[in-house]
Amino acid sequence: MVTSLAIATNGTRIITGGLDLRVNIFSLDSGDYRLIYSTKVGNSVLSLAISPDDACMDVGMGNLLSIYRRKPKVDLIILLNFLKIL
């Protein structure tokens, strides 16, 4: 049973959490609500939140709060300039 839902700021992802101890991320890009990621958490999900820049997801579970951060994308130009220095 889904107990919490959040929509990414850019509107391309829906995140759900529930009593099954899972957080699921669905893609809205093609309109088919395809599951693209799922992870098991330590307790039933009671609340979800996404930061305004979509970089962090907060998962509330009873007396526990978990914060997940998206790995930042490496800017190719910055990476190439860094490699030139080496």
Fraction of helical residues: 10-25%
- How many separate structural domains? 1
Weakly predicted, low-confidence segments: none
Strand content: over 45%
The general outline is globular
In short:
The protein is mainly beta and 86 residues long. Helices cover 12% and strands 48% of the residues. The model has no long low-confidence stretch (mean pLDDT 86).
How would you characterize the overall build of this protein?
The structure is a single chain. By secondary structure, the protein is mostly beta strands. The chain has a single domain, classed as Thrombin, subunit H (Beta Barrel). 12% of the residues lie in helices and 48% in strands. It has a four-stranded antiparallel β-sheet with strand order 1-2-3-4, with no helix packed on it. The chain has a three-stranded antiparallel β-sheet with strand order 5-6-7, with no helix packed on it. Strand 1 and strand 2 (13-18) form a beta hairpin. The radius of gyration is 16 Å and the shape is globular. It starts with a strand and ends with a helix.
Q: What brief labels describe this structure?
A:
three-stranded antiparallel β-sheet, Thrombin, subunit H, mainly beta, four-stranded antiparallel β-sheet, 86 residues
Layout of SSEs?
Blueprint: E1 2-7, E2 13-18, E3 22-27, E4 34-40, E5 47-50, E6 56-61, E7 64-69, H1 76-85
Antiparallel strand pairs: 1-2, 2-3, 3-4, 5-6, 6-7
